[in-house]
Specification:
The chain is α/β, with parallel strands linked by helices. It has 2 domains: about 1-145, 2-Layer Sandwich (VC0802-like), CATH 3.30.2130; about 150-315, Vaccinia Virus protein VP39 (Rossmann fold), CATH 3.40.50.150. Helices cover about 30% and strands about 30% of the residues. The protein is built from 10 helices and 14 strands. The strands form 2 sheets. The chain has a 7-stranded mixed beta sheet with strand order 2-1-3-7-6-4-5. Strands 10-9-8-11-12-14-13 form a 7-stranded mixed beta sheet. Strand 13 (about 300-305) and strand 14 form a beta hairpin. Helix 2 (about 20-30) packs parallel to helix 6 and helix 6 crosses helix 7 (about 195-200). The two termini are about 30 Å apart.
Length: about 325
Amino acid sequence: MHNEQQSKKYIYTYVHHVDEFDLCRMEMRAFFNLDSEANFIISHVEVEPSRSPFIKDRLEVLYEENSLDNIKKLVKHFIVDAKTYKVVCLNTFDIGNTKKIAQPERRSIERELGLLIEGEPDLDHPEVVFGLILIDGKWYFGVHSKSESIWRKHLHKPHSYSTALSTRVARAVANIAVPQPQNIRAIDPCCGIGTVIIEALSMGITIEGRDLNHFVCQGSRENIAYFGLQGNITLGPISEVTEHYDVAIIDLPYNLFTHSSREDQFDIVKHARRIADKVVIVTIETIDDLIADAGLVIVDRCIAKKQRFVRQILLCN
């Protein structure tokens, strides 16, 4: 089974704001162990496309050929398991160096392929969607999965802070921390109103939250419940955490009025190293020296922008 998984090939297309390029690539590296300067990546790793705030489409490749005619010949003999299907051409925008295919041409290709497949086409509610994509002169045909922007549903919480991470950044941070959720336990010991917790829980990541402030903990619990999620939020400082976790996500506390001191920051980082094997730190200040002094090593990093805020996201072991 494992070898079969290894032999599968997936193409992921990406869409993001120019300010998110850095963050998008760090998430790519977490998922695929490599990144791409282009707006697509080809990998043997299977990732649910809705996990990423940047992935647009995923194609599980069945055929790849140098010409559309060759794809058509293969599709003729293709056996569809599902009762109904439809075909979509994914070249709706420039992909790498490959220019967008105009809509009339895309529709024509979709119709031609659709008529060749044995089965019943259904454009409205198909059981399976097949995708076709042209990249660098090569045609790929396979099973298409479209990303759903689940993070958008989390924009309107009962409680929110203006300085909290955006839901997109929070989702990417959760992915960087826990790219493969199986058997991983995570903690967010400075969870605030739960932005990261909500994104992580919605992706099936096992995570607990904690905060110093009673009212903030209550707000976080209400936010989690509002989206029908279940997660444990405890009250207290990170210094009182006694359990051990695979990963800790630390959005270092700050706001415009009560800036945490470097001593406070060092204390949090030091305890994060104590309670977790891997730590993802979000900071608005450069704290490389504190991280090194705590005995952690930065293995990947990026910057994420939100209006005038520039945050550093640091992956540490």
